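Model it.
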Amino acid sequence: MSARATNPAAARRWFQRPWLGVLSRSLAAIFGGYGLATSTSVLMAVALPMARSQAVLTGMLTAIVVYACAALWAFAVRSALKAWIGIAAPAIVMALATWLLRSAP
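Modeled.
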């Protein structure tokens, strides 16, 4: 086994490379933003008190703005971890709210 493989300082330096942060933020913007936009759209389609077709259309149009804002958020915060948390937490909350609304009698 090489010394590099067992050296924790070398592993830490490897994870501090700038391109990994950019990659993580890009993945958060693309996939996390998609998940956030999807959960927003579905929640609005279920929760809005209007005709189903209008609620779906409103949710889809709002999801476009949410997706753009998620991409901006991913690169505006100080760390990639904050970007992931700031995108994933609301997406999970909205998905749970949708699930609760759908399972209510």
